Every structure is written in structure tokens, then in C-alpha cells.
Amino acid sequence: MSKIFTPTNQIRLTNVAIVRLKKGGKRFEIACYKNKVLSWRSNSEKDIDEVLQTHTVFTNVSKGQAAKKDELQKAFNKTDETEICKEILSKGELQVSEKERQSCLDTQLNSIVNSVAALCVNPETRRPYPASIIEKSLKDAHFSVKMNRNTKQNTLEAIKMLREHLPIERSRMKLRVSFAGKEGGGKLKESVVKLANKVEHEEWDEATLHLTLLIDPGQYRVIDELVRNETKGKGLLELLELKEVVESEEVF
Question: How far, in Å, CA of 89 to CA of 103, rounded?
Fold first, then answer.
């Protein structure tokens, strides 16, 4: 039986997602695991070994052709392939089929819509917008997901575009949550505090616990539903004020 000969400078890979970057007049590619590129870009995956199939820079992944050291030095000013892989991961274009691309875009858009809903409010009603309104407004604004950006970067761009179509602002809500200790006690308090950015004040008035919280707008409905369910409608939520978030602040 004849054997298939594979040149030593060729590497065969399967079930691969390719990220491509043109630099210095040449095309460079890296081979990644499917569904891991976006996880890396959104910082939900931090282990480079979980993203890269191999720490090798290619000129053509499909043909298994690895880039030469002098090509890497000329284009990237370095030959450390892991560092070059990270640069390509960050700046390169993810190569996927049309079906896969649409699936990625839909998933990314859903994450962006949810992030906007969690971070922003309608300043006229002082309440978050439903996700359906945000999604429709983004489509009306002809917003398009940038695949080489992470969710945070895309969300900031989405908010910027939405301001031209909706009264919207990035804010945090200050809430006062009150409920009797016997109607949830420590368990309910623990659940509510986990959903808050900060507990500004806590006090007991006889058997009633009052918590003053700073929250992202998207958590308002979650906390409201939690308190109503756990206290059978006896708990109380009061919106005290909105705090505007400065653009440079890290809010998610």
C-alpha cells in the first residue's frame, strides 16, 4: 500500500477556524478552535492554548504552509510566534462560512443588545428599554457587528449610534429595597446584593431591612421580580435617582 507523503514544513489541521491578517504585503493566518476566537476577544477565554490549535503562524492554513522566520521578522519585527498569534487574534479577520458567519453575527448582536439594555435607560421614563426596542433601533440605524471587535467595543459603538435615534443615556440606578426579615431574610438579601454594583447603605427599621443599592439599569427588572416573588408582593422597590456614567468609566 502506498503512503501519502507530507512535506515536513506542512501541518494538517481539521475542524479549524482561521484568523487572517495582511501585514507587510503578505498574508498570515493562524489556526484556532471553533467558537473560541470570539471568547478570546471578549475576554471570557484567557488561556491562549484553549484558542490556538497550534502556536504556528501560517501563510496558508488550508495547505499547511508555515510562515518562515524571516517573513515574520520583516512583517512583525519579531519571531515569537505566540506573540504574533496574539496580534493576529486581536487584529485579524475571522474566516468562516456564510452560515457560520451569520450565526456568529446573531449571537454577537444578541450579546450587544443585552449589554445595551443592562447599561442604559430612557432618560424620560428613567427605565431601561426592552431588548426588542433596542434591537429594532439598531437595525433602523444600520448598525453592523464588527467581528474583529469584542462585545464591549461593539456595545460602545451601538450606544453611540442609538443616541441619534433614541433618547438614551448610560446610567446607574440608585434603588432602595425594603422587605421584612421573615420574608426572605439573609437569603433574599444575599441574592439582591449579588445583583448590585455597590451597597451604599444598609439599615434595619424594627423587623424591616432597607438596602440602598447602586445597580446597572438592566438589573432593575430582575431585582423587582426577585423581591416580589420572595416576599409575595410585600417587598418595596423605590427608584431614588439616576447617576450618569462618564464615558471613560469601566462599567462592564
Answer: 20
